Amino acid sequence: MLRARAEFLEAGHLDPIADAVADAAAAGATGGPIAEVGSGTGHYLRRAHERAGGAGCAIGLDLSKHAADIAARANGGLLFVVADAVAGMPLVGGSVNALLSVFAPRPAAECARVLAPGGLLVACFANPGHLAALRRDWGLISVRPDKLGTLEDRLADCFELSGSAELEYSAELPPGDAQRLVAMGPSARHGAWAPDVDRPVRAEVSVTIALFRRR
Ligand SMILES: C[S@@+](CC[C@H](N)C(=O)[O-])C[C@H]1O[C@@H](n2cnc3c(N)ncnc32)[C@H](O)[C@@H]1O
After folding, report:
1. What spacing in Å lies between the alpha carbon of 214 and ligand 1's midpoint?
2. If you count Cβ atoms within 10 Å of the first and of the last residue's Cβ in the chain, which end, N or C, has fewer?
3. Is any atom of ligand 1 closer than 6 Å to the C-beta of 94?
4. How far apart are CA 162 and CA 172, in angstroms?
5. Is 159 in the pocket of ligand 1 (CB under 6 A)?
6. 60 pairs with which residues across the strands?
7. Does the structure show a pLDDT above 90 at 188?
8. Relative to the CA of 67, which ligand 1 atom is closest?
9. Which domain CATH number covers 95?
10. Residue 195 counted as domain residue
């Protein structure tokens, strides 16, 4: 799963997402620390840290020791820690300027605790239309509607929504990357597998990037 994720992300099909997340994180970080919940291979954290000019420290947290290991080896200079972010992030309260969560959990209490007042939570999640045709044709698991409203409600005590944008585009995936897209996602755990394809596959990308300001 992690190998597929690393190879797929390196192929650049999700670069518009990485760029939008990095721009938001760099603006929120203002030279201070950036952290990421569920940092996976470290792809998004690295982009955000680079976009911030390499200033300040960058810390990725992931429940998976394999993810932290891969991320640490691939991203020298960034710190990756094995931690359950829901149970508690190993970070001092109020110490983070920008906190990323890309296709990953957003535990409200811990996000609020570690972010400095005025700090930014950058949340990226799939919309129902994300990869919709592939979900239908290949039996991938579906995406819940109104994630933004649900998230806003969950975070309302400590955060205000300071902006959100939908990012939609179409990507042409070579056959190997279509296989990787399925293998790297949650559907793989439920036994889904992309059929053998010998031609490029069109994928409709549709995500929301939401910015929540810590009060
Ligand atoms: C779908 S992957 C996304 C990884 C990365 N953000 C990306 O988009 O490439 C979700 C990640 O969240 C991590 N994760 C799930 N629950 C977690 C938790 N409670 N604390 C920390 N990480 C968690 C998983 O191990 C996984 O690496």
Report:
1. 22
2. C
3. no
4. 33
5. no
6. 36, 80
7. no
8. 27
9. 3.40.50.150
10. no
pLDDT at residue 195 is higher than 90? no
55: containing domain: 2-132+142-171+206-214
> Does residue 46 have its Cβ closer than 6 Å to ligand 1?
no
pLDDT: is 172 or 135 the higher one? 172
Ligand 1 atom nearest to 84, measured from its CA: 20
pLDDT digits (tens, 9 = 90+) for 84-101: 999 999 999 999 999 999
Does residue 128 lie within any of the structural domains? Answer: yes
Domain count, the chain: 1
In a domain, 194, yes or no: no
Pocket test residue of 36, 64, 189 for ligand 1, highest count of atoms within 8 A of CB: 64
Residue nearest to atom 13 of ligand 1 (CA): 38
HSE-CB at 77 with a 13 A cutoff on CA atoms is 9
Residue type at 48? A
Residue 183 domain flag: no
* Rounded percentage of the chain residues whose pLDDT exceeds 70: 99
**Average pLDDT for 164-174:** 97
Does the CB atom of residue 214 touch ligand 1 within 6 A?
no
Look at the chain and count its residues. Answer: 215
